[in-house]
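Title: Comparing notes on inverse folding

I've been comparing how different people in this forum approach sequence design from structure. To keep things fair, I'm posting one structure and asking everyone to reply with a full sequence. Here's the target:
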């Protein structure tokens, strides 16, 4: 809840006094380190008791009194909650690694030539290696015009490769389409 004098436009505010918020690291129920993204868990009198006639869904969402919201977020040092994404938007690679598209998109979107980008798991031709990271990229026409770029494909490939070296191999975009 936003309190007078404590308004941060990127935050959804602090929890009500009767509500606890905890951030579980991605993939576990242990508590995340301060300022680290993870799943938002809440506990308190405002939390539902159950899904109507759905004991399976209730068991999945409610564990030890904590509601697993499916939202990803982080808490700052004053207890303000910042929502950063959704857990269900996760890509599971054939290697078993879990990736969150918004994290990878944010990294590559730093390239001035990239206006928009969508990362997805793609398995072309039922490749036995499983899903690979694929991106659909919309170049920034203004930047291309200002730079006098003739070969958009080559520039996009250069930008992707130069940013990929800063990521672990499983987080690198392997294939892409330009729109």
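Reply #1:
Here's my take.
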């Amino acid at each position: 809840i936003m309190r007078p004098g404590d308004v941060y436009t990127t935050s959804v505010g602090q929890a009500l006094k009767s509500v606890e918020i905890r951030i579980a690291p991605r993939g576990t129920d242990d508590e995340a380190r301060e300022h680290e993204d993870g799943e938002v868990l809440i506990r308190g009198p405002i939390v539902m008791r159950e899904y109507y006639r759905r004991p399976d869904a209730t068991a999945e969402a409610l564990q030890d009194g904590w509601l697993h919201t499916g939202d990803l977020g982080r808490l700052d040092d004053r207890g303000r909650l910042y929502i950063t994404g959704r857990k269900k938007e996760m890509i599971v690679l054939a290697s078993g690694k879990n990736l969150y598209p918004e994290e990878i998109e944010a990294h590559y979107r730093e390239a001035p030539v990239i206006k928009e980008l969508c990362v997805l798991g793609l398995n072309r031709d039922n490749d036995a290696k499983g899903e690979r990271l694929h991106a659909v990229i919309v170049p920034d026409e203004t930047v291309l015009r200002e730079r006098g770029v003739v070969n958009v494909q080559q520039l996009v490939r250069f930008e992707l490769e130069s940013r990929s070296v800063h990521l672990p191999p499983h987080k690198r975009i392997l294939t892409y389409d330009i729109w």
